[in-house]
Design goal:
The chain contains 11 helices and 15 strands. With 392 residues, the chain is an alpha+beta fold. The strands form 2 sheets. An 11-stranded mixed sheet has the order 2-5-6-8-15-9-14-13-12-11-10, with helices on both faces. A 4-stranded antiparallel sheet has the order 1-3-4-7, sandwiched between helices.
Length: 392
């Protein structure tokens, strides 16, 4: 009788993505998602937006078989929970009340970027069964490392549903979240999109946009690799000023980071410049594109105008997605208010391994109860969509 061969993989951590060739990393992540690209993650490290000092220490996981890479995972040692967007503050507080250390913890995510994408990249030669085997052994390895290195937990954030299900087969804790994304139903233009809505919702959007039209502002999308240094500086100024006003700091990302991605992956970036009638910059927004998706990431304003945020961050993005036949517009985290503007509730997924058994049981129970609330919430949000019944 033929025996089934047990696949054995080797695991090691690297503390900088520069140890992996750009071509290798991007091939494993299929280069279809801007935020898992080597250029994006490298820019975070080179600009020191992620670092030991920043509380995001690179600890990427390399998985090999016979000295050949077969899988890669972006990973970080975290000493806080900022910039993750899957909120575990209550878990950290519970640890503190019990005089236990929640930090440091291990996180597989894209820093400051709450968008769904591969959190483990595989060699193209692997079968689905082999991928599941890799994930099963990766789960075992991570559990061992939590004990050996005194990390409290591991968190895999914003995985696609397919990878989420693979992690689920390894007995991790699974958590459900919700975002709001716009879908392109082959609209010919923005008016075609509006025509799919009920009369009252359509009128609300028209009224909202008319405020900006009266201000006589000019909106221009510029490819990131074609934008001038002055245009990039203008965006950074807008970004930093708005963050400072809202949060008391100038944002997670630095001017050096934006300069790096402009140079290394500018073709995947769209810079929205908003100018007044005197051609002076008043606001700006930063978008990323893939073959199918538009991602709205950051924005800022130097001057206040009624309705400018919705125009810059939602309506201009919808128009761009329609004009360029992109199927999904992901405008970022949060935003129940997006529903009235045509954004659908969509599920997001995360996986968690908690070393402390008592807390693991409690968190698993919490996530199971939370999941029921999220599903009900998504159903309620779907019922509030502004579309005519025939267009939903």
């Amino acid at each position: 009788m033929e025996q089934t061969r047990t696949l054995v993989y080797q695991f090691r951590f690297i503390n900088t993505i520069s140890e992996i060739k750009k071509s290798d990393w991007n091939a494993y992540f299929e280069n279809t998602h801007p935020f898992t690209r080597h250029e994006y993650l490298s820019a975070l490290e080179l600009s020191h937006c992620v670092s030991v000092k920043a509380g995001w220490q690179p600890q990427h996981l390399v998985i090999s078989q016979d000295d050949t890479f077969i899988a890669l995972m972006p990973m970080y040692i975290k000493t806080h929970s900022w910039g993750e967007y899957v909120f575990d503050w209550a878990w950290a507080e519970a640890y503190e009340r019990n005089q236990l250390d929640y930090y440091p913890k291990l996180v597989s995510s894209i820093p400051f970027t709450p968008t769904t994408g591969q959190r483990i990249g595989f060699a193209s030669s692997l079968s689905e069964a082999e991928k599941q085997c890799v994930i099963a052994q990766a789960s075992q390895f991570i559990r061992q490392q939590l004990v050996e290195r005194n990390w409290s937990s591991w968190h895999g954030l914003f995985s696609p549903q397919s990878q989420h299900e693979q992690w689920g087969n390894t007995d991790v804790i699974q958590r459900l979240g919700c975002q709001f994304h716009w879908r392109n139903h082959d609209y010919g233009d923005f008016n075609d999109f509006l025509a799919s809505m009920t009369s009252r919702k359509r009128k609300n959007i028209i009224k909202e946009r008319s405020q900006i039209q009266q201000a006589q502002l000019q909106f221009t999308f510029v490819d990131g690799d074609k934008a001038s240094p002055e245009q990039w500086q203008g965006f950074v100024q807008c970004y930093q000023r708005t963050y400072l006003k809202r949060s008391g700091h100038q944002g997670y990302l630095s001017a050096d980071f934006f300069a790096l991605i402009a140079r290394t992956m500018g073709e995947s970036i769209r810079l929205l410049l908003i100018e007044n009638s005197d051609n002076q910059l008043v606001a700006s927004a930063l978008y990323f594109v893939s073959d199918s998706h538009l991602y709205g990431r950051y924005w800022g304003a130097l001057n206040e105008f009624d309705g400018l945020h919705f125009e810059a961050c939602y309506y201009q993005g919808i128009e761009y997605a329609i004009a360029n036949q992109l199927s999904v517009f992901d405008a970022g985290a949060q935003g129940e208010h997006k529903v009235a503007r045509g954004f659908y509730p969509v599920a997001t997924y995360s996986s968690h391994i908690i070393k402390h058994q008592g807390f693991s049981d409690a968190i698993a129970d919490f996530c199971q109860q939370e999941q029921q609330h999220i599903k009900l919430y998504m159903q309620q949000m779907t019922e509030q969509l502004p579309y005519k019944a025939s267009d939903q």
